[in-house]
Amino acid sequence: MGTGRRGLAGIAMATAIVAGAAVTVTTAEALPGGAATIARGDCPAAREKVERLEGRITPNACAFMERQITFGEMPTGTPPAYGDLAHPRVRAYLDIFDPEATLWEAGSAAQRGRTAIGTSITGSLGLAPSLTYRGTDVVADGSTVMFGQWNEVTLKGHTVAYPQIARNVLGDEGRTLQARRYYDRAVLFRDTLPGVAPAPLFAGITDAGTPGDGERSQAGLPDQTGLPVQAGFRARAEEVPERLAAWNAGDVDALLARTRGARLNGPGLAAPLASEAGKRAYLQRLFATADLDLKAGQVAVGETTTYVEWHGTVSVHDGEKIRTGVPFGIVERFGPGGEWELYFDTLPLVATQAEIGTLFQKLAS
């Protein structure tokens, strides 16, 4: 997504770090319902540290958010050796997780248990010891927490900033039982490995659509249909199966119809798309590259913001070959200001697993 402020949660493993959506920085008081939110006493320490916190904040959700924030703010100091689970920042990270937790990172199989998860984060901190993040748009819905964050890291002398969604299902004491991380790893290589990084999947897509469309956006209009703006998707029981079917079928019309008038932001975009042509071109590029096979994941609904998770695999059209069974997922965020944001990893859509491994080796060298 763009280079602005918004981020969404989680921390990446050794082969990950990432990209997402851009919006304007605001104070909590300026947000819809902001004054009432500030006045609420539930989880004040977390509220003070994130830009927006909505939903049903249980004591377990509060405990999780406090641990998540602690890790994001903590300096690494001397980077841990690979597999050093006693390193202070590694211990703080593991404190987020239940001993039997699973963690899914973009483009990989899920890790299980603190040893595997901790070993992974030692690789991440070895590659990127400067990695920190702050909470942005967070929604807690009982035992499900969608933690938005804005991550910053220095790689090969370049500051890389990106949003991420950390989706967590919590157990006792607010420790994570199942975690999934949604971000675009391609942003890591764009400036750090020029000439080596894969061509961006969504290159050339703007509000004018794609080069050669001959259609331009109209300034000041939310889209080009002339039809009324639709209410934000609220993930009601009858809506979820229909939207899942649209993603899996690559049904651009259905996806756009339910979010008419919203501004679309996603990986690879320098600015949100307001025009019908731009949004259509973005989705068509995705579906021309990937056949999705997703299932409905977790949903978190706040006062003004809704997160919806779709998780499964993708088949990638790679020239004359098709790569099947690639782990993949998307999180959609529907915000109070007409935002429609997508969080997913484009890297496995433009590079094979072997090519991705080579990129990370070059990044670490």
From TrEMBL:
Keyword annotations from UniProtKB, A to Z: Signal
Keyword Signal recorded: yes
Keyword Signal carried by entry: yes
Signal peptide (residue range): 1-21
Designated name of the protein: SnoaL-like domain-containing protein
Species the sequence originates in: Streptomyces vietnamensis
